[in-house]
Write a structure and sequence with these properties.
The complex is a heterotrimer. By secondary structure, chain A is mostly helical. Chain A has 21 helices and no strands. Chain A has one domain (about 10-35, about 60-270, about 310-510): MetI-like (MetI-like fold, Orthogonal Bundle). Chain A has helices at about 10-35, 45-75, 80-90, 95-110, 115-120, 130-155, 160-165, 170-200, 205-210, 220-225, 230-255, 280-310, 315-345, 350-360, 365-375, 385-425, 430-440, 440-455, 460-465, 475-480, 485-510. In chain A, helix 11 (about 230-255) crosses helix 14 (about 350-360). Chain B is of the alpha/beta class. Chain B folds into 2 domains: about 30-40 and about 225-340 and about 390-425, 3-Layer(aba) Sandwich (D-Maltodextrin-Binding Protein, domain 2), CATH 3.40.190.10; about 60-220 and about 340-380, D-Maltodextrin-Binding Protein, domain 2 (3-Layer(aba) Sandwich), CATH 3.40.190. In chain B, helix 1 crosses helix 3 (about 80-90), helix 3 (about 80-90) packs antiparallel against helix 4 and helix 3 crosses helix 6. Chain B is globular, with a radius of gyration of 22 Å. By secondary structure, chain C is an alpha/beta fold. In chain C, strands 1, 2, 3, 4, 5, 6, 7, 8, 9, 10 and 11 form an 11-stranded mixed sheet that branches. The two termini of chain C are about 35 Å apart. Classes of the chains: A mainly alpha, B alpha/beta, C alpha/beta. The interface between A and B is large, with 72 and 65 residues.
């Protein structure tokens, strides 16, 4: 429909996107202006860029490749606990990196469960460190995301098409060619791009599991430029490289848009199919393996944590309150940005707006944090702004995910209701109030939950701004570890995990309950 | 996305004049300070104890007992109150708490009205994260210093040691900080080069193996880097033995962590131009390189490696805090590289007297006695009570340290060497 | 009266030309082959399609660039005429005001409209709880309270059975007679046109022809219509 009028003006969306872009570019600019050394990329930096690209590409490819059978199995099967499993699979995504890495190592490390099992069989322990370790960890983090994206693709295939395929006597092979390949061609590039972008900014995972300086990523090079050489120009330059690479990935993702996005992902019931009679065992095996791969490390975290839960370290309550406060604020800021952008991006010719949002993935928290610090410090005590600044930065970083969830839904609503709303003269607030907000409620709940959980787990910029009296839970975990309190740290990490999942669940359920027809 | 950015908060590299002695002088070795430590922690002669059993301290004794110059300590208004309050605690050693509290209460009541009428001066000290946590030295230090100064001591945590210095650089002369606490010997040259730090006038009987005479920075604690292992693991006795063994180690990245940089300098100090060879030999022993101390130590405790780069004082933590005797630090014949943590006064401070008072206080018992079991390092001046058990267990053969300027000059080459050796 | 003055609509390679007048109160069927541009013409009048050239006038007011909600037009779409998450009464209330806070008088107008279309007492239901015919009636009730002089129908009853469709068309005719609204209705079925339209606009070969009397046109169709009717 070549409509010209829209029930909701895209101006607010433009404004929000401009705010995000400004936050990113102005902070980057502040870093550049403050620099006094002429930064240039050296040999080591190019090596870091090459390694970053390699590990991100491999991680994205493997995550998506493995997610395809998992998503297909989940799409074909309905079983008790399916929804719970899909929710739980999101947990790795929201864990603080070091906690997740320790959990992974409990399973796959030199002294881990798998190596222990191999030892019983008289085999060598597995060596997890190296490029394969980095990729393993990234798959652990991103397989659930890839699965959700692709599962949505499967559920967007209308049931009638399966009926048609069955009518034609198509077995699994023909159904694949007829229905599933075209869907995958549409969905997979987007999933690849978003995971590639996520892995680009990896730092602690890449270094810890990478086994040495071969595994240097751009983010580590940025850190080095800041802290080691105080070469602000180089840090800014590397940050630009990150933005360009993420931007390129975002362009690919948007050109080949997964129509369903994350919307309603995993909630729909499997479509009835007639081609999968003999595949029950295969599907069961795939689901079991994926669940084990994702749940065993979580189990290790829970077990370690239970041992360290008591006595609770002093200051835990304050840190928990701060974290929840930051998470709620982040969620508020996120919705204020994401809702106008998603509704604007749903309008024809405006899908590039989602690209502006994706920039959030590209930004090194160190660069954005330092830039903000340079800007704010002369005016106001940074510690006084720790909570709002952290909340804003976390919101910007969660924006890409929220937009993936909200934009497709906004598009559906626009297609379904825009003309009716216009003919009824419902514009601006009434449209939001009576149509968009109630109709987007499940997606708002989902993205709010994701943002709250991501924000809970994020160290982000808090380290630059936090004062001693104010720590978030991840910072608290880190401080505990820095003071030899590894047991307590594991306990607090478990509390963090529980709170994150609880917040996610609260928002996600809140969105689904009372959701309109 | 979550990212663990911070490393252990134990300082980073720097610059000033050290009491360095030339190394053994074999060709190719860097000038190295060597120090034979039979008794690694010489206990200084006990200082005169100003203990009283009853009555009020007289003025003369107060002045004598308090190492701080009280007349310079507080602003003009309320000075007399400040003197009363600040003098008492130092005068009366711990056992006379009751008397001290009484005296403080009396002082508070006497000064209540003027104290309310004016703001106390504030001293802002930038430090690293772990210093200010509840289990770090911060809270005890704050309480002890505030009891002597009639001021408010504010700690601002700025990440780790390296983050601390970059923050000072970012803020420049505008900084709110009066004192920066937590720079280490590898960062001193860098810190001095900023020109932001002022000279100090602190002197003390340092029990640091190589002594101290820097004019800008005052040391408050120090430690030896060492590889920590389980006691049932037979540790190699040198870098070469380690390189030839199957022992698995976890180290930290020198680009993002203080101990990592310490190890770089350790091997450089011990082997000079041969350092690259040592790294070549170590490459297959290194399980992984972590961004910071916490990750490495966590991996070690998870059983991912036989040894982890940490401090000789790490086993003391397990012994004292956890009654766990299962950890020990390996002694290397090449000697052990030292990390000395220092504080400095910023030239642009608006509280120069208070900053001086703090630096002076830093080398007294009120500060030093807190360090061993909160920061898990050796105090720069052995406190009156001596060191806790568990701290004397490790006897390094030789203390190593590079001249800070030298350390700074060779850093980039050493780093490239390290990267090349481990990237093969 | 509604005047399409030298109207030209283009979309990609598609183009439609319209130069015609519809008298006030007329009931006009819009007929023509699939893809000829019937919907495009209706959407242009409703304000959903950009006009390339020419003007749309109602009683000498120029509507060409007015927002859809500001036009004297109410429209029933092929589907999506009701918001699924709002009650029937709320849906109808939106025809009065785009906010859901209605005065007592407005509420009674909604109740009257419901009664008029035979949905008395069903205001509290959600659209999903209505049958197809009831949903169509609810949409008509909304059009009724909108009280606009032009009513556009883009085959809203296509999914209903023949009897029900006839019933709905009768209801539409009755309502338009009561309110005096000018009616433009897309249809594929000549019997629908005979049933309720005085005139027919034939859309074919890039041209919307001026309205002509229904019976003579259908009895003796021109070649383009002949090909379509078969």
């Amino acid at each position: 429909m070549a409509g010209r009028a829209e029930p909701v003006s895209p101006r607010a969306g433009y404004g929000a996107a401009a705010l995000v872009a400004a936050l990113i570019l102005v902070t980057l600019g502040a870093v550049v202006l403050r620099a006094d050394a002429p930064g240039a990329l050296g040999r080591a930096d190019w090596a870091a860029i090459r390694f970053t690209l390699l590990q991100a590409a491999l991680s994205a490819a493997l995550s998506v490749l493995l997610a395809i059978p998992v998503a297909r199995a989940l799409a074909r099967r309905d079983f008790v606990g399916r929804a719970a499993l899909i929710t739980l699979l999101g947990a790795p995504f929201i864990l603080p990196v070091i906690v997740a890495v320790l959990g992974l190592l409990s399973v796959f490390g030199r002294a881990g469960w798998v190596s222990g099992l191999l030892g019983v069989l008289g085999l060598e322990p597995i060596h997890v460190y190296g490029l394969h370790g980095v990729v393993l960890a990234h798959v652990f983090f991103n397989l659930p995301l890839a699965t959700r994206l692709i599962l949505q693709g499967w559920q967007d295939i209308p049931g009638e098409q399966y009926r048609l395929a069955a009518q034609l006597g198509a077995g699994p092979g023909v159904t694949q060619r007829l229905l599933e390949w075209p869907m995958l061609r549409r969905v997979v590039p987007g999933a690849l791009a978003i995971i590639f972008a996520i892995c680009l900014t990896s730092f602690a995972v890449a270094l810890t599991l990478g086994g040495g300086p071969r595994a240097t990523t751009i983010e580590l090079a940025i850190y080095q430029a800041f802290r080691f050489d105080f070469d602000l120009n180089k840090a800014a330059l590397l940050a630009c490289v990150q933005i360009v690479l993420t931007g390129a990935a975002a362009l690919v993702a948007l050109r080949v848009e997964p129509e369903g996005g994350l919307a309603r992902a995993g909630l729909g019931r499997p479509a009835q199919r007639w081609d999968s009679g003999g595949l029950l065992l295969q599907d069961a095996a795939v689901i079991t393996l994926a669940a084990l791969f994702l749940i065993l490390p979580l189990l290790a975290i829970v077990m370690d944590g239970l041992a360290g839960l008591w006595p609770l370290p002093p200051g835990l309550f304050g840190a928990a309150v701060t974290s929840v406060l930051v998470a709620l604020l982040s969620t508020g800021v996120l919705l204020a940005l994401a809702l106008p952008i998603s509704v604007a991006a749903a309008q024809p010719g405006c899908s590039w707006l989602e690209g502006a949002g994706l920039l959030g993935l590209a930004v090194s928290p160190l660069v954005i944090g330092t830039g903000l610090f340079i800007l704010l410090n002369p005016v106001v005590n940074p510690a006084a702004l720790a909570v709002p600044v952290t909340a804003c930065v976390n919101a910007v970083m969660a924006l890409p995910f929220a937009l993936r969830i909200l934009v497709p839904r906004a598009r559906q609503l626009r297609a379904a209701h825009a003309r009716l709303a216009l003919s009824l003269n419902m514009q601006g607030w009434p449209m939001w109030r009576y149509v968009l907000l109630p109709r987007m409620r499940p997606q708002i709940g989902f993205s709010a939950g994701l943002t709250a959980a991501l924000s809970m787990g994020d160290l982000g910029v808090i380290t630059l701004f936090a004062d001693p009296q104010m720590a978030t839970l991840p910072l608290f975990v880190f401080r505990l570890m820095g003071a030899y309190q590894m047991q307590s740290a594991a306990g607090v990490a478990l509390i963090l995990l529980a709170l994150s999942v609880a917040l996610f669940w609260f928002f996600d359920q809140g969105g689904r309950r009372h959701a309109g027809a | 996305m979550t990212r663990a950015l911070t490393g252990r908060s134990f300082g980073t590299p720097g610059n000033q004049d050290f009491a360095t002695r030339k190394g053994s002088g074999d060709g190719g070795h860097w000038p190295v300070a060597h120090f034979d430590v039979r008794d690694p922690l010489p206990i200084p002669a006990p200082r005169p104890n100003v203990r009283r059993t009853s009555g009020c301290p007289d003025r003369a004794e107060m002045q004598h007992a308090n190492p701080l110059n009280l007349n310079r300590l507080t602003p003009a208004e309320g000075r007399s109150c400040g003197q009363i309050l600040s003098g008492i605690p130092n005068l009366a050693p711990q056992k006379e708490d009751a008397m001290r509290h009484l005296a403080i209460s009396a002082g508070l009541i006497a000064c209540a009205i003027p104290a309310l009428a004016q703001d106390k001066p504030e001293l802002t000290v930038y430090t690293y994260d772990s210093f200010v946590t509840d289990w770090g030295p911060g809270p005890a230090v704050k309480e002890a210093f505030e009891a002597t100064c009639d001021c408010t001591l504010n700690f601002v945590a700025a990440g780790d040691g390296a983050a601390l210095l970059s923050r000072i650089k970012l803020e420049g002369a505008r900084s709110d900080a009066d004192v920066v606490l937590g720079i280490d010997t590898n960062l001193i040259a860098e810190a001095a080069a900023t020109g932001l730090f002022a000279e100090h006038s602190v002197s003390a009987d340092y029990t640091i193996p190589l002594g101290w005479n820097d004019t800008r920075f005052v040391p408050y604690d120090w430690g030896f880097f060492a590889f920590v292992h389980d006691t049932d693991f037979p540790p190699p006795g040198s870098f070469t033995a380690l390189a030839n063994s199957d022992a698995k180690i976890v180290i930290q990245d020198p680009r993002s962590s203080t101990p990592g940089l310490g190890l770089l300098m350790w091997i450089k100090a011990a082997y000079g131009d041969e350092a690259a060879k040592i790294w070549d030999g170590l490459a297959d022993n290194i399980v992984t390189v972590t961004p910071g101390w916490s990750e490495a130590y966590g991996l070690f405790l998870e059983g991912e490696a036989d040894m982890v780069l940490s401090y000789t004082t790490s086993p003391a933590y397990h012994i004292i805090a956890e009654e766990d005797m299962s950890k020990a630090a390996a002694t290397f014949v090449e000697g052990h590289y030292m990390q000395i943590e220092v504080a400095g006064k910023l030239a642009a401070t608006d509280q120069p007297e208070l900053a001086d008072a703090f630096l002076n206080f830093m080398v007294t018992d009120g500060f030093q006695s807190v360090i061993p079991t909160t920061n898990w390092m050796y105090p720069a001046v052995i406190p009156e009570g001596g060191l806790p058990d568990g701290f004397a267990d490790f006897e390094p053969i030789k203390a190593l340290i590079l001249d800070p300027q030298k350390a700074r000059d060779i850093r980039d080459d050493a780093l490239a060497e390290w990267q090349d050796a481990l990237s093969r | 009266m509604l005047v399409l003055d030298g109207l030209r609509l283009t979309r990609g390679t598609f183009a439609l030309q319209a130069d015609l007048t519809v008298q006030t109160g007329a009931r006009v069927a819009v007929m023509g082959p699939s893809g000829a541009g019937k919907s495009t013409l209706i959407e242009a009048i409703a304000g959903f399609t950009d006009v390339t050239d020419g003007r749309i006038l109602w009683d000498s007011h120029d509507l060409t660039h007015a927002a859809p909600g500001a036009r004297p037009v109410a429209m029933l779409f092929q589907d999506g005429n009701l918001f699924p998450h709002l009650s029937v009464a709320q849906n109808i209330g939106l025809g009065l005001r785009p906010v859901l806070k209605l005065t007592g008088a407005e509420q009674s107008r909604v109740a009257q409209a419901l009664a008029r279309v035979g949905l008395d007492g069903m205001g509290a239901r959600l659209p999903a709880e209505l049958s197809g015919g009831q949903a169509s009636r609810a949409a008509l009730a909304r059009v009724l309270v909108q009280d606009r002089p032009i009513l556009l129908l883009d085959e809203p009853f296509a999914a209903l059975g023949p009897a029900l469709k006839a019933e709905m068309l009768d209801l539409v005719r009755d309502l338009s007679l009561e309110t005096g609204a000018t009616l433009l209705m897309i249809t594929h079925d000549p019997s629908d046109a005979r049933r309720m339209a005085d005139q027919v606009i034939l859309v074919a070969e890039g041209q919307a022809h001026p309205p002509t009397e229904t019976a003579p046109l259908l009895d003796n169709p021109p070649p383009a219509l002949q090909a379509y009717l078969g």
